[in-house]
Amino acid sequence: MIQVRQEFKRAAWFIEGDIKGCFDNIDHKTLIKILAENIKGNKLLRLVKSLLKAGYMEKERKYDTYSGTPQGGVISPLLANIYLNELDKWVEQELMPCYNRSLKERGKRRSNLECMRLHTATGRAKRKGDFETAKMLRKTMKTIPAQRVNDSKYRKLEYIRYADDFILGFAGPKKEAEEIKERISRFLKDKLNLEMSQEKTLITMVGPRAIASKLGLRNRLDDEIETI
Question: What is the pTM (predicted TM-score) of this model?
Answer without folding.
Answer: 0.69
